[in-house]
Amino acid sequence: MKTAVFLGAGGLGCPAALALAEEKAGIRLVIVDPDRVERSNLARQILYGEADIGAPKAEIAALRTGAEARVARFEAATANELLKDADVLLDGTDDFETRFLANDEAVRRGIPLVHGAALGWSGQLLTVLPGRTACLRCLFEGPPDAAPTCAEAGVLAPLCGLVGAAMARAALAVLRGQPEAGVLHRWDARTGTHRPLSLKRDPACAACATAASLRTKELRPCP
After folding, report:
1. DSSP string, 66-105
2. How far apart are CA 82 and CA 202, in angstroms?
3. CA atoms of 152 and 96, how far apart (whole Å)
4. pLDDT classification of 150: cutoffs 50, 70, 90
5. Torsion of CA 130, 134, 139, 145, to 10 degrees
6. d(CA 60, CA 31)
């Protein structure tokens, strides 16, 4: 049985986990999140209700999707245990440090990574196939010095559903042996537009030693 590990049971992790669970594809789901449900989460984190406030997100999300829960923080010290059985890693976390750590650990271990992000009106998705396609550090050398999180800047709730569902589709493609390679997807919910951007690996990338040359200029990280 293939294993999909989710980092983050928030605005992206909830719809992604629900979508994969609904596939009934015989996939083992593992949800990793150290946080508890807060009232402010309810508008965009679709697996939780009023009665869940104060409960661990991972446990409630796992209960609703038939997944396994890991109430833990993803960091260098816990990566071995949390990723030991992963066939694909879905990262829907809300801070740059964790995103880049997820990228680095996935690349180092040869685990396909589905990176998703959403902030305000903007969303993005990138599938990383270690050794074959550009990774997150190929695009952006490292975390920016300062960037707002969803909690600070807000995010359009339907956009979370869109990006989360796209993450599930991308992960399913990986598990079925038909992954998409070398494309960064970006959405602008304000204009209703979607832009797929072709990427190439960077030979000088600090993570995979091989970065992406975009056919579109001035691309910046989407928190």
Report:
1. T-EEE----STTTHHHHHTT-SEEEE--SSHHHHHHHHHH
2. 28
3. 14
4. low
5. 0
6. 10
How high is the pLDDT of residue 168? Answer: 98
Q: How far apart are CA 15 and CA 50, in angstroms?
A: 18
Q: Residue 218 falls within a domain, yes or no?
A: no
Give pLDDT tens digits for 43-97: 999 999 999 999 999 999 999 999 999 999 999 999 999 999 999 999 999 999 9
Q: Is 213 a member of any domain?
A: no
**Residue 151: pLDDT band with limits 50, 70, 90:** low
* Structural domain contains residue 212: no
Q: Which amino acid, 23?
A: E
Residue 197's beta-bridge partner residues?
184
Half-sphere exposure of 57 (CA within 13 A, CB side): 26
Query: Distance (Å, rounded) from C-alpha 53 to C-alpha 109?
Result: 36
Q: Is residue 223 part of a domain?
A: no
Six-digit token pair at 160? 């979370």
pLDDT of 210 above 50: no
How many domains does the chain contain in total?
Answer: 1
Helix (H) or strand (E) holding 4: strand 3-7
Tokens of 128: 């990383």
